[in-house]
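F.,

This is the one I mentioned.
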């Protein structure tokens, strides 16, 4: 039985680990953008953003995780909505309802580029306070 255990241990150590690559960059808002790939396929896209509102702005980040709505080794399209909590300068809590979309394409082995957009509503006690929009944000990330 010991030779079998030894063979399994050697196989586990020698088996190739999943290859992951991290691409880092920024948006045209000078905020961070990142793409993580596993075995050459996109696995996660994270965009940090700022949205203008009626009387101020909101800063947040959004991550898109595989499986995406549409993806290949060189293209991603995804989107959806989520809710999170934010706080103002005075410490008051608000709910942020975000609808975000991303498109990305691999332009070379070492670079991804794309577009991001988010529309959101700021609410407190279920009352709409303001709506916020990023507009189209271009971004790029390199290895």
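My design for it:
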């Amino acid at each position: 039985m010991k030779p079998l255990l030894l063979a399994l241990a050697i196989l586990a150590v020698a088996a190739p680990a999943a290859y992951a690559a991290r691409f880092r960059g920024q948006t045209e808002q000078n905020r961070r953008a990142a793409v993580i790939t596993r075995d050459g396929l996109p696995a996660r896209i994270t965009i940090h953003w700022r949205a203008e509102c009626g009387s101020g702005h909101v800063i947040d980040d959004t991550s898109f995780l595989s499986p995406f709505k549409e993806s290949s080794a060189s293209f991603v399209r995804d989107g959806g909505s989520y809710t999170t909590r934010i706080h103002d300068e005075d410490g008051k809590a608000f709910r942020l309802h975000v609808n975000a979309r991303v498109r990305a394409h691999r332009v070379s082995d070492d670079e991804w580029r794309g577009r991001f957009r988010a529309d959101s509503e700021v609410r407190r006690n279920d009352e709409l306070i303001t709506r916020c929009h990023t507009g189209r944000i271009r971004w790029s990330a390199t290895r």
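The helical segments are 2-14.

Talk soon.
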